[in-house]
Amino acid sequence: MKQLLLIVISLFAIFAILWIRSTVISLEYRLSSLEEKKRQILNERRHLLAEKASLTSFVRIHNSDSHFLVFPDRKKVVYISGNPESLVKTVRFNKK
User: Fold this and answer.
1) With 29 labelled, which of 1, 20, 46, 73 sits at a CA distance of 20 to 30 A?
2) Residue 7 CB burial class (10 angstroms; 0-12, 13-18, ≥19)
3) For residues 53 and 8, what is the distance between their CA atoms, to the nearest angstrom?
4) Under 8 Å CB-to-CB from 68, ≥6 apart: which residues?
5) What pTM, to 2 d.p., does this model score?
6) 22-38 tens-digit pLDDT
7) In the chain, how many domains are there?
8) Are the C-beta atoms of 60 and 54 separated by less than 8 Å?
9) Kind and range of the H or E element at 87?
10) Where are the alpha helices (DSSP H) in 56-82?
11) Residue 27 structural domain
């Protein structure tokens, strides 16, 4: 009876060890695939940030044919000093 119990316990221990090892190996495979996906996403993010920087650069905007943004003439710039909220309340437009 003791020999049968020892055989059952040893078989159970062997299968438990094999199950744990296979679980660890499958987790390692999942981790490596997630790390690869993270690397791809970070690479794509880096490319998108570079594309955004190139699309919004002032050189590109200045050299483009459609001038949506232009630099203001220094003579036409009006500087307002003080609290902007109080100044807005006192401004009115007279329509003639």
Assistant:
1) 46
2) exposed
3) 67
4) 61
5) 0.48
6) 999 999 999 999 999 99
7) 1
8) yes
9) helix 84-90
10) 58-63
11) 2-64
